[in-house]
Amino acid sequence: MANFVNLLDAPFSRRGSFIAFANDNYGEDLYGKCNLWLCSSRIKLEGMMDFNANNGFRIIKFQLIHGGHPVPYSIETTPYEIALKSKYGEVRFVLAEPKLVLAKGKGDVALRLSIPKPMSFFNLDATPPEPPKQVDVQIFKTKVQDYLVAPLTGTLEAGEEYTQLNPANGELQLAIEDFFKVEPKVRASYPSYEAGLADVTADFEQYVEQICPKLPAEFEPQRLQALWQNWQMTVAPDGVSAYKRRMVKMIHSIFEGAFVWQQPLQAIVHAKTPAIAWDIFCSAFEHMSEDGKLTDSLTFEDVPSFGLKPPVHGVALLELMKLFDVSQFPQAEKEWVWDGLKKWTDFWFDTHDTDGDGVAEFANILETGWEDSPSFNVGFPNASPDLNALLVLQMEALAKFGRLIGKDEAILAKLEADAKALTIKIVKQFWNGTEWFAYNAKTGAKSDSHTISLYFPLLLGERLPKDVVDKSIEFIFAKGGFDTPYGLATETLDSDYFFHGFTQGSVITPSSFWMALALEACGRSDLAKKVSRAYCAMQRDTGFFHIHNALTGKEDRSLTAFGEKGLFWSAWSSGAYIYLAGRYGE
Length: 586
Prior knowledge:
By secondary structure, the protein is of the alpha+beta class. The chain contains twelve helices and 26 strands. The chain folds into two domains: 19-119 and 126-183, no CATH class; 214-584, Glycosyltransferase (Alpha/alpha barrel), CATH 1.50.10.10.
């Protein structure tokens, strides 16, 4: 059994599931120094506000027992199974259904499940535990969901702080079922382990065939891992969660939600199967307030979002219209999308233009998507060229898509005129002749950083004056600029603000993805290919992490919260790898 993925890099789940498996937070990928946990990815948004709090990701600890004592084991994985292997026997796990885990063991080992309590080394009043009792089933209750543990082969016994399945004739089989908003109930029968394995195998293989059956040879070695990460982070409506359409979450535990500004990128990634891509793109507009604001991120609960993110939906729609025929979808749904995109566009001009000059501004750091960017050192409201370039493309997308679905031509002509007028303002107000900058709309103070997001106007391509495009590209690729062997850094290497943070000098997913499309829009497919290949080679060699050191290409897991040691793989990054390697990998 080969090790498909290291659980210290990426917890293990399947499409549509709120169950995941992870190694100990501070464990190692070594025999005897790892412990497998069953985890819950139902993490509430309000809990995200306290970054020092434990978010309850790891729930149930698994141990292999021989002779009454825990014994060391190793963790091995395929795309479909996890195996705990000891010298006395092994136990395998499969997510047979999104809410059902099946375990199957052989050899002289028992499987112990526990929810450990904080240890005390000075509990002098401790009384000896009562001997375990044989039980039919066991229910582990948490604040959000319950887990029902049912023995299929072997005997289940409950101790003071654990439940243990003992083998019968060298075999054990166990079912663990996730119950959310319903009372736990034992099934009359459960699928066999083999049937569960066949189900999850077929589901993943179908996804692989639909989305990316092959990549150019240079990037093929990590294709399945990238697809697996995207597949296992995909959620779907299940009748009880807040999700109304397919969405792709970001990172297990720390960024567990499906972030709405990531869905347009994921729609492009899934474009080989238009029905899936369109569903993901539409998902954003299911969660819109009356004033046109899209939620920032969505977990299993639909609760008010404390932020929002840049409007990348228009540029994505224009890209999707190049990749497949969007006219194939129902007329009513297309009109609903147009209306939602229009409200989302109007929201920015109606609520984020404090000086009334027709140029939108970010109101605070949580709206920017670039939370530590030095371009915001001048304060807020922050007028930024990237935000306004995205709004130009959103108006153009409304016009192009509107003609496809029969919208009133006068409305569409005005959108195009407004887009052209804003493009002129972008050059006039954010370009100093050699560089792009942001400014405070109240004080007029101009940023002096060299931040890659300020170069997003290149997404406008030929709509910009040629000398602006040429000088921008010259600046990006100049010595000491953004260009590195690993893709484009988020701050120039010679900037006074360069720092190994999130958007202060690292290589990250959104800038890598959108700047590749921006260079393509400027007619520089050679440069788009250059930076995309560098980014994808780095991801292939180090893993699908969201943040990489721009000087070494190594992953940066220093962004932490909720007691985690660092960030896991990101579906944002694996998605970008799938698309960019496929487009520019030859």
